[in-house]
Amino acid sequence: MENLAAYITSENANMDILLKRTWSKVDDGNGPDGVYRSHIMTFPSPSKISIYPYSPSSSIMRVTNLEVAFGVSSWGNNTSPKTFYIQYTNDPMASVNDSTTDNKWITVKSYTSWNHQSGIVNIPVDFTCRKMRIVVDASYQSTYYLSTVFRVYGEIKNTKYLFQDGTEIKKYVSGTGWTVVGVAPVTKAMFDSDGINDLSIIDNNAIQQLTSDTPELLCWTDEISTIKSQTVSDPINTIMTSGQINEFSITQADYYHGIQSIKKG
């Protein structure tokens, strides 16, 4: 799995720097091995920081490992977090400021006595999401904590969408409307040539222009080239994995992408 630094960002400027930083492999005696002291970033405590792909409307990230170094041992005290959470969400209504117990966020790892004052710690994980967050509820030093490393490893998966309207496979083009791109069953070639990755351009009026009473939203994700049918009642992170073409009712389509009310009639 690769370092996702080139594909992810954060609303927090300090975290954005940490994600993008190229670390020097030296030990200057002032921090974790392999990290310059000048790379230290300060965060408040408590703090909630989210991380997400540059194109969240068309990309999801599978995260398989985190590299973290919090705190600096050569300083006079422990500046690392004390209560530390790693969480992710696929809920469009989730906010980075939600409580750690909010059911819109799934906790992957939680630490109630994190005490790594130096050294880089590997945290193995395995989840697929549109957004993750790092939450520190308390630190050993009450006002702030310090981070010298935060790397995210995994892969970015791009998604493409088409619609099935009766026996016709269609795409929607802003300013033009619906275009027929083929006949069911849908194929990967149709997604490759005509799949769209932004559903926010489609509103309820566009949905009403489809002729079928039960149109379907079709999704392709990059992984395993197989075709599978699922309903949208499954969690979105289940629907969007395994590189499959997934079919689900248009009445409950992928609202993360901006379609919130698309019932026919």
Describe this entry's structure for a reader.
The model is unreliable at 224-265 (pLDDT under 50). By secondary structure, this protein is mainly beta. The protein has 4 helices and 15 strands. The relative contact order is 0.17.
Please give the structural blueprint:
Layout: E1 2-3, E2 8-10, H1 13-20, E3 41-44, E4 47-53, E5 59-70, E6 81-89, E7 106-111, E8 121-129, E9 131-139, E10 144-165, E11 168-173, E12 177-183, H2 188-194, H3 204-208, E13 216-221, E14 226-227, H4 236-239, E15 244-249
Parallel strand pairs: 14-15
Antiparallel strand pairs: 1-10, 2-4, 3-10, 4-9, 5-8, 5-10, 6-7, 6-9, 10-11, 10-13, 11-12, 13-15
Query: Structural class of the helix and strand makeup?
Result: mainly beta
Largest sheet geometry: 10 strands, mixed
Q: Give the uncertain stretches in residue-range form.
A: 224-265
User: What sequence of helices (H) and strands (E) makes up the elements?
Assistant: EEHEEEEEEEEEEHHEEHE
Given this structure, which CATH class of the largest domain is correct? Mainly Beta
Overall 3D geometry? Answer: elongated
Please report the number of helical segments.
4
CATH superfamily descriptor of the largest domain: Galactose-binding domain-like
The separation of the N and C termini measures: 46 Å
Integer average pLDDT:
76
CATH topology of the largest domain: Jelly Rolls
Q: Give me the CATH architecture of the largest domain, please.
A: Sandwich
As a percent range, the share of helical residues equals: under 10%
Structurally, the number of domains stands at 2
Residue fraction in strands: 35-45%
Q: How many extended strands?
A: 15
Radius of gyration: 22 Å
